[in-house]
Amino acid sequence: MLVRRAYIPDAQRPESFDAWPYTVPCVAELAGRGLTFTAPVTMLVGENGSGKSTLVEAIAEGFKLDSHGGRAGRKYVNDRPKTPLGEVIELETTPAGSRMLTGPRSRRKGFFLRAETAFGLLNAVSGKYGYWDEDTAEMSHGEGFLTVFGAMFRERGFYVMDEPEAALSFESCLKLVGLMHQLAGTGAQVVCATHSPILAATPGADIIEVGEHGTRRAKWDELDLVDHWRRYLTDPDLYLRHITG
Ligand SMILES: Nc1ncnc2c1ncn2[C@@H]1O[C@H](COP(=O)(O)OP(=O)(O)OP(=O)(O)O)[C@@H](O)[C@H]1O
Ligand SMILES: [Mg+2]
């Protein structure tokens, strides 16, 4: 692992929590007692607007990953100001994480991938740096992603992802689970926000449910997300009659 905990140092904590992002319960909690990472793969799940992106973006910024979707070590887009939470967040790193974070840019491995900019990342790195032999331009969106994931995950790094499932089919999601699971064994670390019950089921992943309560650890089969999918797949009409009727 590379990062053990995210927190806001005392000196940086705001006096009042009345303004965004501290109005988001999981951010208030981060400011209070921090967020610990207990496994190489952490999955953040929770309703729309619960604060997952706010958290993962700031965590990526804390590790100096390009918060607009690019790789560490190399810029692919121009600098933009950090998010308010990214400005103040600190990461408690392991010795390996600390060597990456304090060393030269090129030593920092990993990337921040978010759904909105993932396609840009793919285009920007496609064919340029020789990480993969295949030409992603000739692949479908999802195929390209998997190729890039597969190639980039060879490096022991810090991988922060926001809904990487957006472009992926069921089977491709399974492949991504396989890649993340493999990666976990190499000393790398993944922090991933997701709505996918498939990704959330990554073996050994620490699942954090984000919501009104702030954050809490949860078992996969007790997640609201999983419960809804299970019921919906068993009987869609149970849900649809509320929508259409
Ligand atoms: N720049 C911003 N300024 C003010 N409020 C914001 C900003 N960005 C997000 N928010 C609010 O912060 C809350 C958390 O948003 P966030 O995007 O982190 O949720 P999320 O869990 O990622 O949701 P989703 O599952 O839809 O991606 C939401 O209420 C959102 O409206
Ligand atoms: Mg989000």
UniProtKB/TrEMBL annotation:
Protein name (record): ATP-binding cassette domain-containing protein
One GO biological process term: iron ion transport
Membrane topology: Peripheral membrane protein
Keyword field: ATP-binding, Cell membrane, Ion transport, Iron, Iron transport, Membrane, Nucleotide-binding, Transport
Pfam families in alphabetical order: AAA_21, AAA_23
Signal sequence bounds: none
Cited InterPro entries: AAA+_ATPase, ATPase_AAA_core, P-loop_NTPase, Rad50/SbcC_AAA, Siderophore_ABC-ATPase
Residue ranges constituting the AAA+ ATPase domain according to the UniProt record: 38-215
Superkingdom field: Bacteria
Upper lineage: Bacteria, Bacillati, Actinomycetota, Actinomycetes, Pseudonocardiales
Gene3D superfamilies reported in the protein's UniProt record: P-loop containing nucleotide triphosphate hydrolases (3.40.50.300)
Subcellular location: Cell membrane
GO CC annotation: plasma membrane
Keyword Lipoprotein assigned: no
A GO MF label: ATP hydrolysis activity
Main subcellular location: membrane
